[in-house]
Amino acid sequence: MADNQREMERREKRARKDRRNKKIIWIIIAVIVLILIIMKVFEININSVIDRFTDEQGNFTLTEGVVEDNFPYNIDSSQNVSIVNINNQLGVLTPGSFTVLNSKNAEVKYAFEHGYSNPALETEGIYSLVYDQGSSVYRLDTASGAVYEEEVANTLLCADVAKNGTVAVATTSAEKLCDIIVYSKSLEKEMEISLSDGYIVSISLSDNGKKVAAAVVTGENADLKTSVYIYEVSEGEVSRTAVELPQGLIIDLNYTSRNVLVVGDSYAGVIDNSGKYKDIYKSGDISTQSLAYTPSGDLVLVYNSYSNSTENVIAYIKKNGQLKREISVSGNIKSVSAGSSLVSVLTNSEIISYNLSDGEEKSRLSTDDSARSICCMGSEIFIHRQSLIDRSEAEIN
């Protein structure tokens, strides 16, 4: 009888222990889920958490030895500087160099001196494309190393890179007006065509590199006319689709997986997969001030009703051309940057962040007139001022 009693007590003890362990496990799971939800809502990058508790040898630590923060980071120029998000690292293009920085501590991950007289930058995914506009040299790199550097036969007008490393370059032509050449990331030529219709002012590859769109400007009755030509890379000129754009100067062309977003100085629109153009804002309705794209390819367009107005609108436009939201903001907007859920604008005195989904203001950071541009990654805001790149953390409301 006593043995049975002791066995029952042991079983009850094990059952209590199992219930306690299960309860602890479910509490841990609930805490992890809550943390992930908070990180998603406030755009906290898991890598930033890991980096804050990682020593110089890459070991996790809760004490001393956390990787040193080297921001503000000194750069070699104060003029003509571009800062971009490249695979969650910070890319910095100056008139003399291109540098990829660890966005958490400003450690240099990769850098080179390009020696280009008029450098321009395009990025997509892990790839960066730096080309010498008006010359003949360009180079393709990843966030961690060089892929290749190449020289073309004629003068580079514009270029673009796709997520898979495919590169499209538009150049002047020896026989006609312009050439379009598409290379794979292994430098194999996938398409080459020549145009006599006009001059190419902008070019964009689809995400998979299978299609290319080129904005071509021609003169007609003393007026400038812009058309977008769309090509299947594998088929070349035989598959060309021509789409005429509204009157005005084209500012940007961005090919997503199925559509081409078009931004002009006084209009914005989308070319769908069938080759039809649809207005988002009709010609003359807006005065474009600045623009940016979210990581998924949605357009964030800053415009006002007339030039030099300080009453601006931030338009959030999906990559299919659907206008989702407009946010009013006052002040001279110098730069705009967009993340997956936040958009931030730089004025003469502040950096203001808004939630893209509902337009709610999330934070304000004071700055001064020396700030020239910004790049946002989640709640972290990188600021170019003079010969420095600094970092701030938005205090989300």
Strand percent estimate = over 45%
Q: Which runs of at least 5 residues are low in confidence (pLDDT < 50)?
A: 62-66
Radius of gyration: 26 Å
User: Spatial order of the strands in the main sheet?
Assistant: 1-32-31-30
Percent range of helical residues: 10-25%
- Structural class assignment: mainly beta
Number of helices: 2
How far do the termini sit from each other? 66 Å
The biggest beta sheet is recorded as:
4 strands, antiparallel
Please specify the SSE layout and strand pairing.
Blueprint (H helix, E strand, L loop, with lengths): L1 H40 L4 H7 L20 E2 L7 E5 L2 E5 L3 E5 L6 E6 L5 E6 L2 E6 L4 E6 L3 E6 L4 E6 L5 E6 L5 E6 L5 E7 L3 E7 L5 E10 L2 E10 L3 E9 L5 E6 L4 E5 L3 E4 L5 E5 L5 E7 L5 E6 L6 E7 L5 E8 L4 E4 L3 E5 L3 E6 L5 E6 L4 E7 L2 E6 L2 E6 L4
Antiparallel strand pairs: 1-32, 2-3, 3-4, 4-5, 6-7, 7-8, 8-9, 10-11, 11-12, 12-13, 14-15, 15-16, 16-17, 18-19, 19-20, 20-21, 22-23, 23-24, 24-25, 26-27, 27-28, 28-29, 30-31, 31-32
Task: Summarize this structure as a short list of keywords or feature phrases.
397 residues, 32 strands, four-stranded antiparallel beta sheet
How would you briefly describe this protein structure?
The chain has 397 residues and is mainly beta. It contains two helices and 32 strands.
Structure commentary:
This protein has two helices and 32 strands. The chain is mainly beta and 397 residues long. The strands form eight sheets. Strands 1-32-31-30 form a four-stranded antiparallel β-sheet, with no helix packed on it. A four-stranded antiparallel β-sheet has the order 2-3-4-5, with no helix packed on it. Strands 6-7-8-9 form a four-stranded antiparallel β-sheet, with no helix packed on it.
